[in-house]
């Protein structure tokens, strides 16, 4: 797929993420910098980091959901995970991200929920058949994760 659902060229998506990496790397990480902060500032920095982490985790979940969609069981060996030598999308996500198995499972689970919420369900990759969302009552949770209001 060369474009995202909002018609942003793939290269622009990757460029945006690559552009964020040096910005994050430039944030201070030296103990003495934080030693110089007063208590209120330390807590404010902690809150900012939590907000940023939620936003980044939401994006990681969306990507993990894409890995799951592109590794759908009906695709068999043609699916993304199996083509890469992985049994499941969770295993591919774990290895690609260097995360724990639990974190990878969580990212995939939340990503699938977000994908289903965005598309109104699941589409069989072989037949094009549309299935309703498996957990429609969690749509509000999906939206809150996307907005960075909840952790994935």
Structure description:
Helix 5 packs across helix 6 (101-119) and helix 6 crosses helix 7 (139-146). A two-stranded antiparallel ribbon has the order 1-2. The two termini are 25 Å apart. It has 152 residues and is mainly alpha-helical. The relative contact order is 0.11. A hairpin with a 6-residue loop joins strand 1 and strand 2 (130-131). It has helices spanning 10-26, 31-35, 39-69, 80-83, 89-97, 101-119, 139-146; strands at 122-123, 130-131.
Could you write a compact summary of the structure shown?
The protein is 61% helix and 3% strand.
Tally of strands: 2
Structural class: mainly alpha
Radius of gyration: 18 Å
Order of helices and strands: HHHHHHEEH
Number of helices: 7
- The average pLDDT is 90
What order do the strands of the largest sheet run in, or round the barrel if closed?
1-2
Distance between the termini: 25 Å
Q: Which strand-content bin applies to the residues? A: under 5%
- What spatial form do the alpha-carbon principal axes imply? elongated
Low-confidence runs of at least 5 consecutive residues: 1-5
């Amino acid at each position: 797929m060369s474009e995202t659902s909002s018609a942003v060229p793939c290269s622009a998506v990757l460029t945006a993420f690559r552009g964020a990496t040096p910005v994050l790397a430039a944030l201070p990480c030296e103990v003495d910098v934080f030693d110089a902060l007063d208590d209120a500032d330390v807590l404010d920095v902690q809150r900012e980091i939590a907000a940023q982490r939620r936003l980044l985790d939401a994006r990681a979940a969306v990507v993990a959901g894409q890995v799951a969609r592109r590794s759908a069981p009906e695709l068999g060996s043609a699916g993304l995970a199996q083509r890469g030598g992985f049994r499941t999308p969770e295993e591919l996500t774990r290895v690609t991200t260097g995360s724990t198995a639990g974190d990878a499972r969580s990212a995939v689970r939340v990503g699938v929920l977000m994908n289903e919420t965005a598309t109104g369900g699941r589409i069989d990759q072989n037949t094009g058949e549309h299935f309703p969302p498996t957990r429609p009552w969690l749509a509000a949770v999906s939206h809150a994760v996307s907005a960075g209001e909840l952790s994935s």
